[in-house]
Amino acid sequence: RNMSSAGPEGRKKMRECDGLIDSLVYYIQGTIADHEPNDKATENCVCILHNLSYQLEIELPESYAQSIYIQRRITSSNDKTPGCFGTRSRKVKEKQQDTPLPEEKSNPRGVESLWHSTLIRIYLSLIAKSTRNYTQEASLGALQNLTAGTGPMPFAVARTVVQKANGLPSIRNMLHVSHPTVKKTAVSLLRNLSRNTSLQSDIAREVLPDLVSVLPDSVPESDIVCETTASVCYTLYNLTQNSSHNARLLLSADGLPKIITISMNDSNMFSKASRAASVLLYSLWSHTDLHSAYKK
């Protein structure tokens, strides 16, 4: 577990170690089957896998990168003007989401297991069944790592979490735990998932009111609450930017007074949270059909 956080070279060596990832997955599968999700060794295994999934898209060996990302490179070469936000512009993101997803191997080995649906379902199972905060946080964090990029693999993982494995209810429950870093990681995962336009209606229907409930009624004071609040605002921004329906959902969940309060942070106008809330308000105002409802 300590070695897996030793940086890029350490991660590379451990990913290449024959049988290591397979053994970790095998052990966790055993404890879940035995209804022992709070086992300390399971926590260690999940934390290792969490660390080994960090920056996975960037650090994939060339052989995987060629087979998985060939579609992405074709897409990128066809788009000479990606817009003012570089490769993260909406047009490029939509094109990437339209490209065929990489086919899953029925019997993944080694590094292939890190993004396979089997392990994704294991993480979701641990989120639902474990009561160990470190196990919950590491499972959420691994999914956050795997959905952090803009290519086919992160999108395939996001679609598995939301649509194939029905993971949103378990993630939603983590928004209401008292442990601040578990909550923060759950929100960060939802922020990644919400960047995918084809998943936004599912996410809004399932968790938008819960995201609003996470927002504080006053300006957040601690750093971790400030970061969590900023992440919630950016997630809500993603969900409402292109959907008047989702903006109305936010309105009916009494989100507007909270967002206005957070945006008017007199003590530090440049705090992460107040900045994010201001961006969200600006976006919400673009739905002209809701102006009268906003004014009320």
List the helices and strands and how they pair.
Layout: H1 8-16, H2 20-33, H3 40-52, H4 56-59, H5 62-78, H6 90-98, H7 117-129, H8 133-146, H9 152-164, H10 168-174, H11 180-193, H12 200-214, H13 223-240, H14 244-252, H15 255-263, H16 272-285, H17 291-295
Family: Belongs to the beta-catenin family.
Region (Disordered): 80-109
Biased composition (Basic and acidic residues): 94-107
General description of the model:
The protein is an all-alpha fold and 296 residues long. The protein folds into 2 domains: 1-65 and 109-177, Leucine-rich Repeat Variant (Alpha Horseshoe), CATH 1.25.10; 196-295. Helix content is 67%, strand content 0%. The protein has helices at 8-16, 20-33, 40-52, 56-59, 62-78, 90-98, 117-129, 133-146, 152-164, 168-174, 180-193, 200-214, 223-240, 244-252, 255-263, 272-285, 291-295. α2 (20-33) crosses α3 (40-52), α8 (133-146) packs parallel to α11 and α13 runs parallel beside α16. It is elongated, with a radius of gyration of 20 Å. The model is unreliable at 71-100 (pLDDT under 50).
